User: Fold these one by one.
Assistant:
Number 1:
Amino acid sequence: MDRIQHYEDQELLRLVTSDGFVVTALLITDENLENKEVRKTPILLQIHGLLGHFLAHGTPRMLPHALFKKGFGSLSINTRLATAGQILGRGIFDDTIHDIDVAVAFLEQEGFSNIFILGYSLGADMLLNWLSNRPHDNIRGIFFEGPHYSLPKSCEKKYTKWGSNPSYEEICARAVELLGDDPYNSENDETFVIYQSRGPGRKPGSSEIFTYKTWWFMAGPKAYRVMAHKHIEKVKVPILFLRGESDFLVEAWEPEALAELVRKAGNTQVRVKSIPNARHDCMENPQQMIKEITGLLREYSVQ
C-alpha cells in the first residue's frame, strides 16, 4: 500500500432529492480521495436531531472532526427538518426519507464501500423510518443515539408532566379540525406555540413551536413512522444503541426494549451502550463515545 499523509478535506454539498428539496451536506474525508484505499475506509452518514448540523453543538458538530482524527470520513446532512423546518411548515417527518435516499445514493455513486449511518435524537427516528422502508443490505452498521421507544407517547407523557398549554389532547383536536381527513395534502396550517412542554414556566427553553401539520406527523397519535417499536424489527444489519446515562429525554428502558425487539426478530448483532458522564448528547463524553463508534466501524467494515 502507498504511504499516504492524511489531511482533512471539507466540502459543502447541495444534494437535490427526488421531490426537489435541496439537502445541504458537509463531507469530511481524506484529501487523497482518489486513492482507492481511502474509499474503502468506513464513512459515517450522520443525521442530526431537531436543530440540524450547523446550529447544534455536541454530536452533530463535534463527531465528524473527531472521527477523522481516528481515520474515518463522514457526511453530515441537513434534512428538511433542520433549521426550524417544523416551524416553517416544510418539515414533514415522513418526507425526510427522500433526504436520506439522496445522501446514501451520493456515497454509493462516489464509490464508498463501507457505509455506516448514525441517527442522533430525532435523527434516530428519521433513520429508522428510512431503514424500515428501504433495502439496506449494503449498509454495514447502524447507530441510534438517544432513540425514543415511541416519540408520540414520549411527547404526550412530557406534556402531561409539565402541564403544557395547550395540552396534548387540545393540540390533537385542533389539528384534526384544521387539517381534515387528509392531513398530508391539507392546504390549511397554522404555526403555534406549546408553552411549558419541556419544563416549568414559560421561558423559551420550556416551550416548543410547530405548525399543526409538522406536529401531526412528528408527535400526533397516528404518527406511525416515529413509533420506533412498531418497525424496529425490520433492521437486519448490526446496531449499536447509545444513550447518555443521565439522558433527561430518553429513559434507560427505551433502547433496551428496542434492542430486545430486534433480537426477537432474529438480528443478534445488537448492542446497547450507556455513555457515562453524558446526558442526551453522548459527545459530552467524547472519549467514550468515539471508542464505541470506532469499535463498530472497525468490526463490521469489509476490506
Number 2:
Amino acid sequence: MAAIGAYGKQGWIRRTMRMPGGDAGSAVSRSGRFPVWRWAILLIAGIYFLLPLYAAIRFAGLKAFGSVFTQAGFGAALWTSIQISAMTWIITMALMVPTTIYVHLRMPKMRRLLESVTILPIVIPPIVLTVGVLQVFPTQLKATMWLLGFEYVILAMPFAYRSIDAGLRSIDLKTLTEASGNLGANWLQTMWRVILPNLGTSLLSATVLIVALCLGEFTMASLNLVTTFPVWIVEFDQLNANISVAASILALVVTWLFLMLIVLLGSRQARRTGAGEVTLFTVTANTKTIGES
C-alpha cells in the first residue's frame, strides 16, 4: 500500500508538472530557462534605445566630445540647470511633505481631491501653463530662473505627491505620531526624527524624478527665455550640429550617472536603516517601520 501511495503521489507530481497552469510546472518554468519572448522584448528594447545612440555617436565623432566643454555658454547653462534643480527640489519638498502628512493625519477624506489637483500639471499642456504663470507673476521675475523654478515646482507636484503618498501608505503614520506625542515630542520633532526617517525611500524617489525633470525640460525654459542646458543644446545646434549632438549624449550620460549616484546612496541608507530600496524604475515599499523590533 505504501508503494502504491508513493507511486500515486509521483504520478500526481508528474501530471502537475506537465499541466500548463500547475503550480509545480510554473515553478519549473520560472526556475528553468528564460522564456524566449522575454529575450525578444529585451532585444527589441536594446535596439530601440542603443541604435539611435550609436548613430548619434557616429554622426558627432569622438573629437566633438572633447570640444563640448570649451564652447561658449556651456558652463553657464549647465550651472543654471543645476541651480534650478536644487531650487525646485527644496520648494517642492517644503510644500508637499508637510501638506501630504497633514492630509493623511487630519483630513483623510481630502486625499482624493488632492490627487485630482496634483494630476492637473500633467493634463494641462506646458505652453498653457507657462502663459498662465507669466500673466500672474510680477514683471521682475519674468525671464529669470526663479520664475522657471516655480513653474517646475508645479510640474513636479504629481511625481512628488505620489512618491510621498506611497511612503505614507506603507507606514502606520497615526500610531507613530501618537507614540511620539506621548513621549513628549512636539510636531517638528515628530516630523524630523520619526516620520522623515521612515520616508527615506519615498523622498529619494521624488528626488530622482524632480532632478530628471529639471535637467531635461525644454519647453518651459524656452518660453521663459532662460538658457538652461537643454535650451543651450538646441540653440547651439544652429552653429555646430556635431557638437550639439555630442552635448546631448553627454547630458544623457551625466544625468544617468547622477541618478544612479542618488539611487546608490539611497540604497545604502535603506540597507542601514531597514527601509525599502529604490531603483530608477521600481520602489520596494517599507515592510518594517524604522525603530520597530
